[in-house]
Amino acid sequence: MEENNNMTAERSLEIITEQIERSRKEVTRDTGLTLYVSGLCVMGVALFIGICAYFTNNPLFYLLYAAVPIFIYFADRYAKRNQPKVPASFVSRMVDKTWTTFGIFAVAFFLFSFLYDFYMVRMETLDVYARLRIEPFRIILLLMGMAITINGYILKSRWLIWCGIIGGIGGFAWETLNVFGITVGRFCSPYTITRVSHLFSGIIIALFAFIGMALPGMMLKKKSL
Asked: What is the end-to-end Cα distance of the chain in Å, rounded?
């Protein structure tokens, strides 16, 4: 009788372990798809803005970045339209809260910095504006890398952790050091540099969105199969 009870307890523990692992895989696959879709949305918007700003030299196109969360929301729902809804769990809630927090801070900071620079360039001289202007994209890339890295720790994915670190810190360093401006500034006029920098910034953001979001999303989807 005691032996049967032990066997029953062991089997119950195995069933619980299997259910936890199955739930973790479902959450990982769902998160991977969301991350993949989000990466594609960011890449598409970044390239679209870069191309439009290049041909028009109009910075107002950058306001489209504020609509990225809306694009991601509808694209994610469309991608999961034929899939069963993943039950809420501690892991899924942590992942959702991480990205929600990132979206709130990123959009708020971007809008503030855009409006600040928009009025500053009209109220101050160009020299003062150049010293006081806010560069939002390097901070947003850093926040994105932090969010991806945190999700990597939550989902126990080394690839996701390293992609977040490389994409976030790499993008922040690239924008802070102004690698493009220093390199190309020797050969082009300021007007040409401004136009080309719009296009190049879009390409860089799309590249880091691929490294930090789309690529890890694909890996998570494959890993959870």
From this structure: 40
